Structure formats: C-alpha cells, structure tokens
Amino acid sequence: MTPDTERIARNLAAVWPRITKAADRAGRRPDEITLVAVSKTFPAEGIRAAYAAGLRHFGENRVQEWESKHAELAGLGGTWHLIGHLQSNKARRAARLFHRIDSLDSLELARRLDGFAAQESKRLPVLIEVHLGAEQTKSGVAEEDLGKLAEGIAALPHLELRGLMTIPPFFDEPERVRPYFRQLRKLREDVSKQTGLALPVLSMGMSHDYEVAIEEGATEIRLGTALFGTRANQA
Description:
By secondary structure, this protein is of the alpha/beta class. The chain has nine helices and eight strands. Helices cover about 45% and strands about 15% of the residues.
C-alpha cells in the first residue's frame, strides 16, 4: 500500500462502524448505504489511493476539474458523480464524462442533458438537487417547484430520475440538521407518489452529519474530509 492508501484505509475503517451503528439505530442495513467519496480538489493519485482502499463511488464538483483528472484515471472502474452545480454551457461535457448527475435543478438544463445523453447513446441517471434553507449561495430547486420539475424530467427519454439530493445549512451541532433531512425524505415520498417513480436514492449527509442523515433515510452519503483529510483549498 502507498502511504495515501494506508491513510484513507484507516479513515475508512473508522467511518464504517459509525455507518453501521447509525443504520442499526434506524433499523436499516449498512449495505443499503452507498458511500460517495468527495474527491474534489484532490489529485488523481489521491483517487487511485481511495480506489485501492476499496472505494468505488467518487463525487466531483466541477466539470473542468474532473476533465483534467479523467485521462489519468482511464480504466479505473469507478462510478463518477457530478455533485456540484452544473452550468448549462458544460452540459455536453458532463453528459460525456460522468456516470451520474446528482445536482440537476432546472428543466432547461435537464432538456440539454437529455439531448447530449442521446448523442452519447446513453440513459443518464440523475438526481434533483433541492434547496432547503434560506442560503442564497446554495443552488437547487425550490420545494414548491420540485413536483413540476420531476414530472418534466420523468418525460425525458434519455434521463433516468433516481431521487433527490440536498446540501442543507451547516450547523456545528449535527442534530440541528435533522429537520432538513427529514423534509427531503418527505419530499421524495410526495414526488414518488406524484410521478409514479420509485426514486430509490436520497443523497444527503456529509462528513460532519452523515450519521443523522442515515438515521433519517439517506441511501447515499458524500464524504470528503472524513476520508481524504482536510483540503488545502476548501473552496
């Protein structure tokens, strides 16, 4: 093992028991939860080390950053998620480079992705990012517009709507985030009834609050610092 692989493996070994205990408290199985390693700002060798430690799902924030790493990681059998806000002018590249878009927030963008996915001869799984909280800097669709957006995406032949994602406000006390996770779960149930889609994915919870997210039904958690350590650039 490389030093990076050993470090990430130690961090992963510390995370899994906490995932298991949170799942147990909620009466769930740990294997219901997918861990997405947030590899933004970390170089390709860091992703290789994480892969060697056993991680298979990776989240990137920016199309151009992943584009710069992509060639170095050719042949690595990971699943690549775009978890950051997608600009419309980068939709073509996103449809080509990523296995899943987890941050879809408008019908206009969905239609563009659908067209580019058709050109790639693929059906692209997507999540809708929901804006919960009053933070102006966060992206995502408003709760009141979620149903209409979900119906629009469901009608697009080359997108597969799989569920919802959110980035709630940050609190030092993770328990304060619980209402936001609970609300996303309820919204998923409402949209599932409205559209008739199963929507199996709830992507919520990060390094500081993932245990609460699991207790509230998260099927995917997005961990960066807990696995890779502190970033030199937190942007």
